[in-house]
Write a structure and sequence with these properties.
By secondary structure, the protein is an alpha/beta fold. It is built from ten helices and 14 strands. The structure holds adenosine-5'-triphosphate (ATP).
């Protein structure tokens, strides 16, 4: 891509005491992209975006938003960058409308509050107090607060954690709606499906390092060439069908293995052409499967391929440094973050 990146992170490093949270992370985000930072809990995603937003001092590397060095001059990104971090802290009694208007007053060129509430489907809930909002409504409010300064770039961190599948899907639609207004989005998530569904490009981060980068399709296409076909055989023909498939695995160059996938399903793995081998072999013994599916590969398979372990979003990350907390006490391990606009944060460390 040729456009000038709106976000540039290069060789970013951040430690908390002995703990290396981010170790040489680099990526660039182009205008209008939804760019993902994907990885399990503790991988270093939030630390990366907090350094990018100028909320934390990096130990090394550079972070830029629209050419502004956010480490050297965090105040200068105010208005350029909207930040929605995990677990917003708002007073229980403040209403949706009051919160958005209050935050709008912090910025020199705020968004039109009415338009913003419409964009995020919050207009009908303007008078509702924060404590009475549903999880999905709270998340929509947190996006509204990230966008109220009319930023060119928005950071959305673990936006759909804790939401039910339906609220999650409608939040995804909203993210796309926001992008269509011209805002570039940096999306932090540990949900593979979310990254696959929303991101134009992404980096996968594990234990503080980028382990894969590209479009979801490029990453999946970069996997090895094996394919798996799953077949549900009719009970009366199952034994005959399995025998035919076992013979095939022993003799056909495009078939590597035949495994029991449980619930009466047989999984046949082989080359890209495995389906061409399976169907005639079953036809020959007159076994018509009740169901045939090719197993699609996903970012989860990419994670397994690059890290050598299965993806558990909640697993503690592999150690990069020791787990000692920050020595200066300025960054407690508590994860509650507030929504105060970037320039007002005086507690960087
Ligand atoms: P999560 O989704 O759980 O927030 P993450 O990928 O965003 O995960 P970070 O929050 O950036 O990861 O944390 C990276 C590592 O740094 C983790 O091991 C975490 O425990 C550690 N860490 C984060 N904040 C602090 C802090 N203030 N003091 C000490 N260690 C910290």
């Amino acid at each position: 891509m040729s456009a000038t990146p709106v976000v540039e992170v290069s060789h970013l490093r951040k430690t908390y005491g002995e703990k290396v949270a981010v170790d040489d992370v680099s990526f660039a985000v182009q205008p209008g992209e939804i760019f993902g930072i994907l990885g399990p809990n503790g991988a270093g995603k939030t630390t990366t975006v907090e350094c990018l937003a100028g909320l934390r001092h990096a130990d090394g590397g550079a972070t830029r938003v629209l050419g502004v060095d956010t480490q050297a001059d965090p105040g200068a990104v105010r208005g350029l960058l909207g930040v929605q971090l995990q677990e917003s802290a708002l007073h229980d009694k403040i209403t949706v409308g009051e919160a958005v208007r209050l935050f709008a007053s912090f910025y020199p060129h705020p968004a039109d509050v009415g338009e913003l509430l419409d964009l995020l489907d919050l207009a009908p809930h303007q008078g509702v107090q924060y404590a009475k909002l549903s999880g999905g409504q709270k998340q929509r409010l947190s996006i509204a607060l990230a966008l109220v300064g009319s930023p060119r770039v928005a950071i959305l961190d673990e936006l759909t954690t804790g939401l039910d599948p339906q609220a999650r899907r409608s939040t995804w639609d909203l993210v796309e709606r926001v992008r269509s207004t011209g805002v570039t989005i940096l999306l932090v998530t540990h949900f593979m499906e979310e990254a696959e569904r929303l991101c134009d490009r992404l980096v996968v981060i594990d234990a503080g390092r980028v382990v894969a980068a590209g479009t979801p399709l490029e990453l999946v296409d970069g996997l090895d060439d094996t394919r798996t076909v799953q077949l549900r055989l009719p009970e009366v023909d199952a034994a005959r069908g399995r025998e035919a498939l076992a013979r095939l695995a022993a003799s056909h160059p495009d078939v590597q293995s035949v495994d029991d996938a449980g619930s009466g399903v047989v999984a046949v793995t082989g080359t890209r052409r495995v389906l061409f081998a399976v169907v005639p072999a079953l036809a020959q013994v007159d076994v018509l499967p009740d169901d045939v599916r090719t197993v699609t590969r996903s970012l989860e398979d990419v994670f397994v391929a690059v890290t050598g372990r299965s993806y558990d979003p909640d697993a503690a990350p592999a150690a990069v440094g020791s787990g000692a907390p920050a020595a200066d006490g300025a960054e407690g391990v508590g994860r509650r973050r507030d929504l105060t606009p970037t320039a007002d944060r005086g507690d960087r460390s």
